[in-house]
Design goal:
This protein is an alpha+beta fold and 171 residues long. Helix content is 54%, strand content 27%. The chain contains three helices and four strands. The protein has a four-stranded antiparallel β-sheet. Helix 2 packs antiparallel against helix 3. It starts with a helix and ends in a 7-residue tail after the last strand.
Amino acid sequence: MKNSLLIINLVVILTIAASFFFGKQEFNKLKQSYAELNENNLSLASQEQSTRLLEKTAADRKIISLAIITAEDLPDFIEQLENLATETGAEINLARVDDANENNPNINLDFDLNGSYQSLAHFTLLLESLPFQIRIDQIAFNRNSVTENKKSLPTWRAHFTIELLNSQTKK
């Protein structure tokens, strides 16, 4: 009887020890699963926050992208400059176009404008009000005289050096 009681106690103790050992392993697995689940929830929340931010700024990003002139947009921009010159009564002559490259992310333009001082000033005002990221590096005005019907008429010439800024450039 004593042996059977001893065997029962030994079995109970081994069962408790085995339960404790396996229970601790299961507890650690559960703890790790909880940590992974918490990390996934944080990641999901971060993704949702990023998605909301993208949705909230979509209109602003579109406006900003329209203000940036790329090499593909350059012909349209030059045509717009020609239209501004015509609108102001000036004549434009494009002298140089330097495309963006790895040393300079911006597009550089040099052009001359001929006409009355008023038309050149009006062109400059319209150029500054264009909805693009433009840096006017230099404007040089020169006065010329043209003789017509024995009358000397003042004309003006302006040389412009401008940079069309890339999205990575600080104005």
